Amino acid sequence: MTSGNGRRTLLASRIPLDQISIPKDRSPLLLCPDCRTWQSWKRGLIKAHPLRPNQVTSPKCPGSHQRVLIDLTADQLREMRVGAAAHAWTIARSPREGYQQAPPVVPAIHQIAAARGAPKR
Ligand SMILES: [Zn+2]
User: Fold this and answer.
1) Does 100 map to a domain?
2) What are the pLDDT digits (tens) for 78-116?
3) How far is the CA of 63 from the centre of ligand 1 (A)?
């Protein structure tokens, strides 16, 4: 299924968690991938919006009329956020695999000699 703008339909569950918002009592919001502004969508379509909101003569954003299929609920989205936050926390706390510690400092020649019990001059 394609959108009004000719692009493929976006699945809400495939949108990065920080680029979608589904408030319980308001219309959902999506960060438009083209102009990076938050847009609401109605009846599965992002409403038409200017590419540069600050300019009166701005052309229409190519992300307008993007079809978005909401395949998760506000509760599911919140749970995914909590899960992702916990996951990020776990990664941040765990020691990294393949992380190399600084190599041991090589002792100086006289220290090696002293350790071997070499005769001193
Ligand atoms: Zn846009």
Assistant:
1) no
2) 898 899 888 888 888 877 666 667 777 888 888 888 888
3) 5
DSSP string spanning 91-118? HHHSPPTTPPPPPPPPPPHHHHHHHHTP
Q: Over the stretch 22-44, which tens digit does the pLDDT of each residue have? A: 887 888 899 998 999 999 988 88
| 120 within some domain | no
Q: How many domains does the chain have?
A: 1
Residue 8 CA to ligand 1 centre (angstroms): 15
Entry pTM: 0.64
Centre of ligand 1 to C-alpha 87, Å, is 30
DSSP 60: B
Ligand 1 centroid, distance to 9 Cα (angstroms):
15
Range of the domain at 33: 10-93
The residue length of the chain stands at 121
Residue 5 placed within a domain: no
Residues with CB under 5 A from ligand 1 (ion): 32, 34-35, 61, 63
Gap between the Cα atoms of 33 and 110, Å rounded: 64
Q: How far is the CA of 67 from the centre of ligand 1 (A)?
A: 13
